[in-house]
Amino acid sequence: MRTFRNNNNRRSRYRSNDRNYKRNGEGQKFNSDFSHNSSFQRRIPGKNNHNAPKLIEKYNNLAREALSNGDKILSENYFQHADHFTRILNEQQLSKVANIQAQQTEKKVIEIDKSISDQENNK
Fold it and tell me: Which of 20, 38, 79, 109 is 20 to 30 A off residue 123, Cα-Cα?
């Protein structure tokens, strides 16, 4: 039978700091700074939601499958996911329409300004 008198040395060798291992007190755990982002919104709003129609279809299919297996709770969970991505898709479409309308309004304003400046130059 072996007796280990020096257990402390064994424990200290378990994870040495040669592989950039950081212990609890060393360094930051998360690289986020909440003071600058007080609204808690994403910096890039549409980053993961560009596949919203595919995700809606995926979660609806999973919900139907779970419902056919008799799991009502799981199916409701999947339906809620599908509903979430449906709302995201609607927001994307509304923002596209708003952008198009803003561009058209800007073009009209530029045309009006140009026509006013042309009239003033002709006087």
Answer: 109
Residue pointed to by tokens 């509304």: 94
Task: Dig out the tokens for 14 from the structure.
Answer: 């378990």
Its sign, for the CA torsion 47, 48, 51, 53, is negative
List pLDDT tens digits, range 64-91: 999 999 999 999 999 999 999 999 999 9
**Diameter of the chain by CA atoms?**
110
Alpha-helix runs per DSSP H in the chain: 7-12, 52-68, 72-122
pLDDT in tens, 7-52: 555 555 555 555 665 656 555 555 555 555 556 565 555 556 668 8
Determine the Cα–Cα distance for residues 68 and 66; give it in Å rounded to an integer.
5
